[in-house]
Specification:
Largest sheet: none
Structural class: mainly alpha
Order of helices and strands: HHHHH
Helix content: over 70%
């Protein structure tokens, strides 16, 4: 022959069919080979994602608690600025609503301490409102 064999052809004549082609039909062997080539980069992208996702979830749960703290701080700021009896009833309603939302909040066990601290601080603000002479209802469960 005048045309030299390619390196792939030489390898084929030396060792025979590749592993997949020996044990699977041709169409399935080609599909598996292409999927393996496709899955290697996908796996490279998924590994870091599996490390980041728990941190993102934890941050989202912690953010829920912090948003309630922000609202509690606004209530406390209103209490400091306008400690009137009429305003006290409105503040009590806001604190009750915050407490109900905090009671409905479901967080992972690692954040339950923060949630209990929030509930304690809600009761602390409720006590400050009561100290200013507003009508305070007992905490709801």
């Amino acid at each position: 022959m005048d045309v030299p064999l390619s390196s792939d052809a030489q390898h084929f004549y030396k060792s025979g069919l590749p592993f997949l082609y020996r044990y699977f039909p041709f169409w399935l062997a080609v599909l598996v080979k292409r999927l393996v080539i496709l899955l290697i980069p996908v796996a490279g992208l998924l590994c870091p994602m599996f490390r980041v996702l728990p941190a993102v979830y934890f941050g989202a749960m912690q953010r829920r608690i912090l948003l309630l703290y922000r609202e509690l701080k606004l209530v406390e700021r209103e209490l400091d600025e306008q400690p009137t009896r009429e305003n006290g009833a409105n503040l009590v309603a806001q604190v009750d609503q915050l407490e109900q939302r905090a009671n409905r909040l479901r967080v992972p066990l690692t954040l339950s301490q923060n949630l209990y601290q929030l509930k304690t601080h809600i009761n602390l603000v409720r006590g400050r409102i009561a100290g200013n002479g507003a009508e305070v209802r007992p905490p709801s469960d």
